[in-house]
Specification:
The structure holds 2 protein chains of 2 kinds.
Chain A: H1 3-31, H2 36-40, H3 67-83, H4 86-96, H5 102-109, H6 113-142
Chain B: H1 8-18, H2 25-37, H3 39-82
The chains are: A mainly alpha, B mainly alpha.
Amino acid sequence: MSLQGIFLIYPLKFQKSHKILDYYRKFTPEQNGANLDDFASSPGSMFDTKEKWKVKPEDWKHDPKNVFEQKELMAVITACMADLPTKLSLVYRMRELEGATTKQICKRFETGESNCWVILHRARLLMRRCLESNWFAEDKKRK
Amino acid sequence: MRHWLFSCKKVSALVSESMDRKLPLSKRMGIQFHLMMCSLCRRYRKQLLLIRSLFLEEAAQDETSCDALSAEARKRIEKKLKS
């Protein structure tokens, strides 16, 4: 990238990240910890009493190879993201799409770091299951 | 004996945590040991990594589209500088 390119992009990026943070800030106050208890039961339902998989992860044989499929898959991911509980999707998006560290996320949501890991874990469990039923299962039907 | 054998539930949480920070050696070894024996958890880990790589690709595409814009802008600037 040329020097001019850098000068053009960086202020833009900075503004963008600022806006994103403002967006998250709007959500924080009332949602702190309030609905955390709702999630407490959710990963439990995916495991049996012996703590083994109740809903077994299926083999995803089909990898998205071409660009069109990838775009389709991204659309499914976005839909799944929207289906997640608000706080989960906010934290998950911040972590995976903005690439924020858990420390930054904790600061934003004013929670402990271990809490962040638990939230992310739940988001990933739900996201995986959602993708399986909405993309990879569909795929199987097609064949 | 049992206390250092991790359950699937625990390993799934730790696998996710390992994507956010470096785990202590004891936990990493516990995970590896469990993964050696449990195909479902291996699969779970692979799928999480696939989802993350998809996100990364998406982010990279955003970068390039940003780059394309700047290239256009660069041309415009170059033109102006020359004139």
